[in-house]
Amino acid sequence: FTEIVKSQGKKPSSELISYQRLHPNEFEIKNLGVLPQSHVIRMERVRFADDIPVAYEIASIPEKIIRGFKESEITEHFFKTLTDNGYEIGKSQQTISASLANSSLAKHLKVKTGDALLSLTQISFLQDGQAFEYVRSYYVGDRFEFYLENN
């Protein structure tokens, strides 16, 4: 998100809505390959471009990967924190679909309930194939543009 927004000549920023240590839900168990009795850190935040809300993001990270990191290292520059600590980031898998804003998303994104959103689900992996992040994001379509390139 940060790199895409910067490439568009805009200033990226985030507002942290919640940061919790929880047992994983069924989607986190499936997509992160964690055990039901383990813990994940689940954070929710609004992402901005030039102070305009563009996306609402729910990110889940296995606690075992980030144990010992400060909350700010996770919420402000997660990928940099990982690479600075010797983790090698590998591939990611993304699914994009259409959805509608519920009342909570509408409030955070400053749109109307029922407005169209782009939903993106992403699973990010380390080089060794271990999933380290499961993210569900909701983008305001007329405020954000995806550019995909395949090499």
Q: How many helices does DSSP assign?
A: 6
Q: Mind telling me the CATH class?
A: Alpha Beta
Strand order of the largest sheet: 1-2-3-6-5-4
**What value does the Rg take, in angstroms?**
15 Å
Helix content: 10-25%
SSE pattern, N- to C-terminal: HEHEEHHHEHEE
The number of distinct β-strands equals 6
For the record, what is the CATH homologous superfamily label?
Chorismate lyase-like
Distance between the termini: 20 Å
The CATH architecture can be named as 3-Layer(aba) Sandwich
Arithmetic mean pLDDT: 93
Q: Main beta sheet, described?
A: 6 strands, antiparallel
Please give a structural write-up.
The protein contains 6 helices and 6 strands, in the order αβαββαααβαββ. The mean pLDDT is 93. With 151 residues, the chain is of the alpha+beta class. The protein starts with a helix and ends in an 11-residue tail after the last strand. It is 24% helix and 43% strand. A 6-stranded antiparallel beta sheet has the order 1-2-3-6-5-4.
